[in-house]
């Protein structure tokens, strides 16, 4: 087996880990009784806290950003904050299946943006793979879509949150060309957390007084879907384009719906489970036949077994 093949398999494995990790996000949010803006704020601040032991190694790069990089980081962080605020808010108004299936629009938005901004090339098999995955996503959420009351408001919030995260990912592809994953993630998460802190302050949301179980949920959100999910996806932008990375979100309805069925008692029928297989097949076609293949992992990367383990790989 060549080193390139090993690197490609490692990338795909990490990609799968990221999909599983982000699927837990909706479950943790449902378990919490705190305001979603507070949940998102502490989720990101705790992520930054977990990253602090590694800051020293990247201190020079983190403080030597130019005006354009700072501006893009600010915009990317604000978009990430909006995504968390809107999408997490949707989970209080509609089902996990409905909310996560709307996120399936993210790859289409990012693909359109990549073609426009990066002149990305697409082929017929990529479009077929995306279409198959989208069809499976629609089947999963179809039984839960409601066109009235709080469910409709929840679906609209999820759609707006999807647009926000698509912009965040496209800005990330610009920034990751000249920044390490650690520097990019640390500053983007910090900007997003501060944005949410201002929002909470303006709206009078309490910053303390939460039960130990709530702090446990905040910490779980920081570790599982943020570090093992968003952080990992941002790291993968170094080896995969934004459209391919965003395809991971199409796997989220599958695992989120399964978790919601097991842990929250939400309904899941045989048709929806079959649709999950369709989604995974579509994602596989998109990645397998995409024109942009994973780049080989450099020799000094932690996956190569050399050098210190950096949090960007966790």
Automatic annotation (TrEMBL):
InterPro entries hit by this protein: AA-Vitamin_Transporters, EamA_dom, EmrE-like
Segments passing through the bilayer: 12-31, 37-58, 70-90, 96-118, 125-144, 156-175, 182-202, 214-233, 245-264, 270-287
One cellular-component annotation, GO: membrane
Ranges for domain EamA: 11-140, 153-287
Keyword Isomerase included in the entry's annotation: no
UniProt topology in membrane: Multi-pass membrane protein
Name of this protein: Multidrug transporter
Keywords recorded for this protein, A-Z: Membrane, Transmembrane, Transmembrane helix
The family this protein is said to belong to: Belongs to the EamA transporter family.
Cellular location(s): Endomembrane system
A Pfam family recorded for this sequence: EamA
């Amino acid at each position: 087996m060549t080193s390139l093949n090993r690197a490609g398999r490692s990338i795909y494995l990490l990609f799968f880990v990221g999909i599983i990790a982000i699927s837990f996000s909706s479950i943790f949010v449902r378990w919490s009784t705190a305001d979603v803006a507070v949940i998102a704020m502490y989720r990101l601040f705790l992520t930054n806290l977990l990253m602090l032991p590694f800051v020293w190694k990247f201190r020079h790069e983190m403080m030597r950003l130019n005006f354009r990089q700072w501006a893009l980081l600010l915009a990317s962080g604000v978009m990430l904050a909006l995504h968390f605020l809107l999408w997490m808010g949707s989970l209080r108004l509609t089902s996990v299946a409905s909310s996560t299936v709307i996120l399936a629009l993210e790859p289409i938005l990012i693909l359109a943006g990549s073609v426009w901004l990066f002149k990305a090339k697409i082929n017929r098999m990529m479009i077929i793979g995306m279409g198959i995955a989208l069809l499976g996503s629609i089947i999963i959420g179809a039984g839960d879509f409601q066109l009235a009351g709080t469910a409709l408001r929840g679906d609209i919030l999820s759609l707006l949150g999807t647009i926000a995260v698509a912009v965040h990912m496209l800005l990330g592809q610009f920034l990751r060309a000249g920044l390490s994953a650690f520097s990019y993630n640390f500053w983007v998460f910090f900007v997003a957390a501060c944005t949410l802190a201002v929002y909470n302050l303006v709206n009078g949301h309490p910053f303390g007084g939460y039960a130990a179980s709530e702090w446990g949920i905040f910490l779980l959100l920081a570790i599982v879907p943020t570090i093992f999910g968003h952080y990992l996806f941002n790291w993968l932008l170094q080896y995969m384009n934004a459209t391919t990375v965003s395809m991971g979100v199409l796997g989220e309805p599958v695992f989120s719906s399964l978790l919601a069925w097991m842990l929250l008692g939400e309904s899941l029928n045989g048709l929806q489970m079959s649709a999950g297989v369709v989604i995974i097949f579509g994602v596989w076609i998109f990645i397998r036949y995409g024109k942009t293949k994973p780049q080989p992992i450099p020799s000094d990367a932690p996956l190569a077994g050399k050098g210190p383990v950096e949090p960007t790989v966790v």
